[in-house]
Give the backbone structure.
Amino acid sequence: MNRLLAPALVLLALVSPASAGDLSGLWDVRGELADGRSYTAQAAVSPGRKAGTYRIMGRGKLGSRALVWRANAKRQGSTLHVRHIGHGGLVGRLTGSTGKRVVGTYTVDADERGFGGSLGVEGESKQGTVRFTRLKLPTASFSPTSLSLAVGKRGVVEVTTDPPEATGLLWFEGPVERAFWEEGKRKIEVSGDAVGTHTLKARLGSLTGKVVAELKLTVGPSVLDRIVDAVKQAKADGKTPVVIFDLDDTLFDTRYRVRDILRDYGKTIDEPRLKTLSVRHVVYLLPKTLARAGFTQAEIEGDLGKKINAAWRKRMWLGASHSLDRPMRGARRYAERLVAAGAELHFITGRKQSDYTASLEKLAEDAFPEGTLHCKPNNFYAGTPAFKKEATQKLRAKPNVTIVAAIDNEPGNCTAFKQAAPKATVVWIRSQWKEMPKTVPMAPGVIEIPRGYR
């Protein structure tokens, strides 16, 4: 649907009636076309950019079918000349693909409460009739009644109007990402692209229409910005601020590793679906990756799937394969910000000690700032969360050290970090992760961010 028809994010507002000589507002529309078909609708009329001009937007029913239209109008005394635009809606129903215009000539009542007249296809003699009757301006509201976002985050609000039919006749302006219908309700997704207070306005009909409501959106610093500020504060207090990063799917995107391994094997067995595998196909579990690439369940569970799995396992955890990874978007730049603010970086990974050298080389290859790498001992059998918890506790016990933050893609690891350093900001980056059993919830206080560092 055209963005002009999308509802706005709004607060209930008081709006004065239209002044004399002004046709802008909400109108009830009843018309009969030249072929005898009748329709009912509501229309929003808003001022054009030039004096005496208007924009009209309507939504209604033509028989049992939805009818949507837009038109430009120009007033000369008591006469309103209307010219419909676009090729859908009413224009399409009447003209087909002829390219002709739908035009109308309406007479405005002396009291400005209505107007109407003939409507037909340009150059054709048959005419229909239309009558517009003024309605009260709509009011609008949204739920929730206030909205605050961290910069870079998005939020959703639900929009309602009185009368409900006016919902599709509102134009919105402000930091709006998209409008959509969900279970019969109109919802708006907004984005917090810049820190500050932003105004979202609901206008009737178009960008020049009357403002029927407003919403204030407050956008604050992101959790990543707050971590940088906390590092600066700890440094100013004479502490050694430490920020912990995981590697796989936290600083590095391992989807490229999976893609390249499977593509190489696809060339070996001449399997087109593997040879053309995209990063978009790759998810945490290999069977789901293959399903997204077009493999059937029978193939995944059969001999072919077993061979692919064996080839993937043979290379996936080799130190040499880490070079196939790519840095997560914005990761290096964010690490540099932390170091510039005074942070000491520690990379605590579930990779084994045998991968230590390859991991260091990969960090250097992608120009990450220097830090201390902690790999899991080859004979550590208690699991990665236990290792990360133990390593963090040892760091925390060092004189003058304060653990400012820890960032990881695995919920279990985030819980371990929060247990080891309760006052630290622990961030779960939603890239790829192993689902935790429902009986083992993630620790409270962990903050979620999407893939990447913005």
